Amino acid sequence: MKNSIYSTAAGMLTSLARLDISTNNLVNISTTGYKSDISFEQTLRNLSGGPFPGKDQPVLGGNVIDMKNGIIQTTGRDLDMAFEGPGFFTVQGPGGQELYTRNGEFDLNSKKELVNAEGYYILDKFDKKITVLGEKFQFAPSGELFIDGAYFTTLKIVDIPNRDHLEKIGGTFFKLKDYAPQPQPIETPQIAVGALEKSNADLLMEAANLTGAQRTFDAQKATADVILNSLRKVITEIPRPI
After folding, report:
1. Quick one: average pLDDT of 119-141?
2. 56, 171 Cβ separation under 8 angstroms
3. pTM greater than 0.85
4. Is residue 242 in some structural domain?
5. Burial level of 34, CB count in 10 A (0-12/13-18/19+)?
6. How far apart are the first and last CA of the chain?
7. Who's near 208: CB < 8 A, 6+ residues apart?
8. Cα dist. 80→12, 50, 113, 157, 205 in Å?
9. Higher local confidence (pLDDT), 225 or 55
């Protein structure tokens, strides 16, 4: 009976983690450039001194980032950009940390510096922040910036094909893990100017995942209640030897 409690507890923890992942995906269903998480399960073996002694236990193995492209939505705004293929914009995060994002919703601050909604600087291929001065400016699908008809600079656009090298920071930012190689620049990116990439989270799928995880948790809790009640009955009602 002890093993039944461990198995049920492991299942409940797995369901709670799945609920958290699906809830977070649903919360970010309207977040530009958001990449959803996918959970996967593994079997925790009966190792000496492990957290779940007894039989093999199903637990949540973790989650991976779903990097499939979201739908491109036209905005007509000059500072909105979306990737039609692979690629990440490079921004300067807190403390000068280099971060990567698919969210191309940019703006100009009071100093005419190109920033995102969080105020992080958008970097060019020379790792410099971009100051947009002049009467007219225009971004090309290649990431090149033209000011008053003359070439000025090019956005730093990189490719990180291995999603295992990425770690999520907040809703739409990523950083490289310590062991990951440096990302490679994309010389000819495919950028839709005047458009944004919507979240790739699927509303119907996430709602179904949320409902399934909740029902599984409820069933596991009911099982745990039966086991605990049985144990309580054994302890309180079976006569002890004199």
Report:
1. 95
2. no
3. no
4. no
5. buried
6. 25
7. none
8. 43, 50, 15, 15, 28
9. 225
Which three-class secondary structure state does DSSP give residue 193?
strand
In a domain? residue 91: yes
**Residue 183: predicted pLDDT:** 93
240's CB contacts (< 8 A; 6+ apart) are none
Tokens of 151: 């070439």
* Total number of domains constituting the chain: 2
List the structure tokens of 5. 């409690």
Tell me 143's DSSP state: S
Q: Which residues pair with 91 in a beta bridge?
A: 99, 122
Pair 53, 46: CB distance under 8 Å: yes
Residue 215's domain comprises 2-68+201-237
Distance CA 75, CA 26 (A): 23
